[in-house]
Structures are given as structure tokens and as C-alpha cells.
Amino acid sequence: MIEKLRWGLVVVVAMALGAGVAVGIDELRAESPGSSTTVVEKVSPSDTSGVSATLDSVADLVAQVRPSIVRINSSGTGGLGGVGSGIVLNKDGYILTNNHVVSSGALDVVLSDGTAGAASVVGRDVGNDMAVIKADIPADKLVPAKLGDSDSVRVGDLVIAVGNPFGIQAGSSVTQGIVSGLQRTLDGNGGRPLRQLIQSDAAINPGNSGGGLFNARGEVIGITSAIENPSGDRVFVGIGYAIPINIASRFLPDMLAGRNIEHPRLGISLQNLTPSLARSLGIKGVEQGVMVMSVASGSAAARAGLVGGVGNGDVITSIDGKKINNYEDLATVVDSKKVGDTVQVTVVRGGSEVVVPVTLEAWRTGNS
């Protein structure tokens, strides 16, 4: 577990209509098919400088990408159901969406032209709120999306969001905006934060979840997943979040192969250390890093002997030789590892530097 103090209120959109999941974050919080014939289309990034959009060019962009976005209907218990969106990956019928869209119930997929077919879940990445499903739809009806490079996205880039807000019947809906922020972090499923999110002001609402955030070249750069929701009314207020497509691409082979994804954790709660905080707490030998506030019982960190405490706990300064200045640095390094990897955690303990080997464990739903 890795914990951090965050702000705001987020609503994860597009589960059952009228029954969204509100996630409060005003609190201390924690941290392939296996067949060789399966192909996911991905394109190389190119320079987007000077790209401008007239009304006609946006319409052309919409015409290009809309067939790649599907509506996902889920039927729950008692006849209650929900609606979300998905991104066509290939002509074999594999579709990328949010895990919360397909968390339960029977699934149907509807294309923008009205073609429909039953679907089933193939693989899940609960920690990143992603899933792959397979739809029983003829290949000649499917239009795979082009996956872009979310690492090349810049604040100010034009984007459009395509999905099915509020279950609108007449095909997928489109909104336009810009990328308004990068590297956002929000509370996610099972206690694991969603990280490196793309923030945009393209309007998204319940039903958009699992849909595509496209750049001006018609490439998917993100999976629309959540909205900032300070009022609690489940309506868009100008801040939406998308999971970067590069994160999805990293785990797609395993999900396509029917495997559920596990993510590593240390099992600690953290607080950024600054020079002024170090002085006020009387911490010796270090002025910047992350303080280990507490260690979860029985966790990887506990087994390794990491020490928690305000002012008298370990201060993590590097992992595997990579300098750790703050929580984001630590989360980035840990997320790049696999469950079972052993990392060398350098800490300052009582004014002296100590290297502690920690074998990373898996996040589990509800672990803290």
C-alpha cells in the first residue's frame, strides 16, 4: 500500500444509470487471446505542432473514429442494468473498456450502426480500472481504433471524447475540448490509486466510461473513466479524467490472453518530507524524500523490517538507485515493477543510511 493526502470528490462514471459510485478523496489514502493472430492496431506518434481544427475537420475526425466506439449494456440482478462504452481493438471482437462498466451481469455490445452481439469478459486489470471483453459480432462490422502514444500528449492538445452518456440511443455522442492537465492521481478500485491520468475539459458523463479520448489525428490517447464531482450530483463540471492508452497497452497482452492483472505494493502509508518539515520534526541526515508513517501488518514492508512513525520512522530516499523526492517518484518506480520483484529500498533511519531489500506483494481489493 502507498498512501497519500489528496483532495476533492470523484465519481466513477457509467455504471448503472442512477447508481454511480462516489469515491471521496478528502482523506489519507493508500498507495495475452494467447493466439498469435490477435492484433491490436497501434500507430507511431508524429508531430502535432500546428494542428488546428476547423468545424469541418472536427466533423471529419468524428466520422473517422466514431465507428470504433461501442455501447456496452450490462444486465444486473433484479433486471437492473447499466450502460457504458468501449473501444474496438481488432476484428476478432476484442474491446477495451473500464472494469467498472463490466463488473457484473450479462453483457451486450452495440455498434454505432446498431449491430449488436453478446459479449463476455476476457481479462481484467482491476487496479487500473480496465478490462477486455470479446463480442460476438462479424469481423466485417468491426472498425478497430488506432492507439496513439499518450506519453507524447501535451497540455493544450485538442481532444474529442466519444461515448454513450446517459444511454443516449442514437449512436455514440461526441464532445470536444483540450488536454488541461497531466499526471493526475485519483482514488481507484480496491484502494489502489489511479495514476498518471490525463485531465481534459471535453464533457463526459455517466455512460462515457470506457469510451475513447482521441487526439487530432484520430488516435486513442486515453480511456475516459472519471469526473471531478464536488457537488455530488454526478454531472460534468469541466474536469474529466482518462486512463492513458500507454498504460492500457502495457497490460493488453495479458488481458487478451485471459489473465487478470496484479500490481505491486510495499504496504506502507507515506508523507512527503520537505526541508522545513524535517527541521520541525528534528529529522537528521535527510531533508527530502518520503516518510514512512505506518507499516501495514503482515505486508511486504513489515516482513522486510521497514519502520514507520512520525519523525522517528524511515525516510525513503531511493529505490533501486532511483532518487525518491516525493510520493509520485516512489509510485512511479513501484508501478514499473512486478509482483514478486525484490527492490533495494534506501532509507535514512536515525540519521544513518540503510538499504532494505523488499519483495513486492500484490494489491488486493480492500487491502490497506
The DSSP helix count reads 5
* Strand line-up of the largest beta sheet: 12-13-14-17-16-15
Please provide the count of β strands: 25
CATH class term of the largest domain: Mainly Beta
CATH architectural arrangement of the largest domain: Beta Barrel
Distance between the termini: 6 Å
Number of domains: 2
Structural class by sheet pairing and helices: mainly beta
Give the topology.
Blueprint: E1 4-5, E2 9-16, E3 19-24, E4 28-29, H1 55-65, E5 69-75, E6 81-88, E7 94-97, E8 106-110, E9 116-125, E10 130-135, E11 146-147, E12 158-163, E13 173-186, E14 194-200, E15 212-214, E16 219-228, E17 240-244, H2 245-256, E18 264-265, E19 268-273, H3 275-281, E20 289-295, H4 300-304, E21 315-319, E22 322-323, H5 327-335, E23 342-349, E24 352-359, E25 361-362
Parallel strand pairs: 11-16
Antiparallel strand pairs: 1-4, 2-3, 2-16, 5-6, 5-8, 6-7, 7-10, 8-9, 9-10, 12-13, 12-15, 13-14, 14-17, 15-16, 16-17, 18-25, 19-20, 20-21, 21-22, 21-23, 23-24
Describe the structure.
The chain has two domains: 4-37 and 53-256, Thrombin, subunit H; 264-362, Pdz3 Domain. The protein starts with a strand and ends in a 6-residue tail after the last strand. A hairpin with a 5-residue loop joins strand 6 (81-88) and strand 7 (94-97). It is mainly β and 368 residues long. The strands form five sheets. A six-stranded antiparallel β-barrel has the order 12-13-14-17-16-15. Strands 5-6-7-10-9-8 form a six-stranded antiparallel barrel. Strands 19, 20, 21, 22, 23 and 24 form a six-stranded antiparallel β-sheet that branches. Residues 1-39 and 43-55 have low confidence and may be disordered. Helix content is 12%, strand content 39%. The protein is built from five helices and 25 strands. The protein is elongated and about 65 Å long.
